[in-house]
């Protein structure tokens, strides 16, 4: 979503249900207070997930990365005036892999609806391995490819009803570009991320969650 038209249509759409689901999934991971935690939101878009995260965890910080400056402009607008949130959120315009992200730095990796945009899904999993600390928590949510074209159209009619045509088209394309759960399981196995679990979390979403290995804690940690 590189154009201003696409970015604005996305930002004005109501994704509150799925974004609330994302934060609920994070709570279910028993993340604790996350006091002092450094989070990274990959593919942050207009930063709604980042903002929700920082409101939920008031002593955490978050770097929010997106490849579209138009999205980050909307994110900055959303952050303006949020005195308790804005100072804890750093916006980064770049694509992954990104040299702007320090290695082994983050306690928590977040990503919502980025995976299906990548030509090579391993780019995401390698990035996570590079920038996360050992033992870091990971929560990646994405669309799940429908079983048929008819089901895809039903999802578009249900969840993009009344949306601008550009958003309906993007949503349809995203559904067809998304992965099935077993495909994501295979991606994680290829990346060596076998400590992460894949689950279906709605009629159109899957989630990858868990902790990365921490060799310093031993095999029984």
Which structural class best describes the helix and strand composition?
A: alpha/beta
Whole-number count of domains: 1
Query: How many strand units?
Result: 7
* Strand arrangement, major sheet: 3-2-1-4-5-7-6
Q: Look up the CATH topology.
A: Rossmann fold
Largest sheet: 7 strands, mixed
Broad CATH class: Alpha Beta
- Helix segment count? 8
Q: Can you characterise this structure?
A:
The protein has 221 residues and is α/β, with parallel strands linked by helices. The chain has helices at residues 4-12, 16-28, 48-56, 69-79, 122-131, 149-159, 165-177, 181-191, and strands at residues 38-42, 61-66, 89-93, 106-112, 132-143, 196-200, 205-211. The chain has one domain: Vaccinia Virus protein VP39 (Rossmann fold, 3-Layer(aba) Sandwich), CATH 3.40.50. It contains eight helices and seven strands. Helix 6 crosses helix 7. The chain is globular. The relative contact order is 0.15. The mean pLDDT is 92.
Brief digest:
This protein has helices at 4-12, 16-28, 48-56, 69-79, 122-131, 149-159, 165-177, 181-191; strands at 38-42, 61-66, 89-93, 106-112, 132-143, 196-200, 205-211.
Sum up the structure in keywords:
alpha/beta, 39% helix, 221 residues, 7 strands, Rossmann fold, 7-stranded mixed sheet, globular, 8 helices
List the helices and strands and how they pair.
Elements: H1 4-12, H2 16-28, E1 38-42, H3 48-56, E2 61-66, H4 69-79, E3 89-93, E4 106-112, H5 122-131, E5 132-143, H6 149-159, H7 165-177, H8 181-191, E6 196-200, E7 205-211
Parallel strand pairs: 1-2, 1-4, 2-3, 4-5
Antiparallel strand pairs: 5-7, 6-7
Helix pairs in contact: 2-3, 6-7
């Amino acid at each position: 979503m590189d154009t201003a038209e696409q970015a604005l249509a996305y930002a004005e759409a109501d994704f509150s249900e799925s974004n609330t689901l994302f934060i609920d999934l994070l709570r279910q991971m028993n993340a604790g207070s996350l006091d002092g935690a450094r989070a990274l939101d990959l593919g942050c878009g207009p930063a709604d997930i980042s903002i929700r995260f920082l409101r939920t965890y008031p002593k955490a910080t978050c770097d929010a990365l997106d490849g579209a400056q138009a999205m980050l402009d909307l994110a900055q607008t959303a952050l303006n005036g949020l005195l308790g949130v804005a100072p804890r959120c750093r916006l980064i315009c770049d694509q992954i892999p990104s040299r702007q992200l320090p290695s082994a730095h983050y306690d928590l990796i977040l990503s919502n609806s980025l995976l299906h945009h990548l030509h090579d899904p391993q780019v995401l999993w390698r990035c996570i391995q590079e920038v996360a600390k050992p033992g870091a928590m990971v929560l990646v949510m994405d669309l799940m490819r429908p079983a048929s074209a008819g089901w895809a159209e039903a999802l578009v009619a249900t969840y993009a009803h009344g949306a601008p045509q550009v958003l309906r088209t993007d949503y349809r394309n995203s559904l067809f570009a998304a992965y099935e759960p077993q495909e994501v399981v295979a991606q994680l196995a290829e990346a060596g991320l076998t400590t992460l679990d894949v689950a279906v979390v709605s009629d159109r979403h899957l989630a990858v969650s868990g902790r990365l290995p921490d060799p310093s804690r031993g095999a029984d940690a």
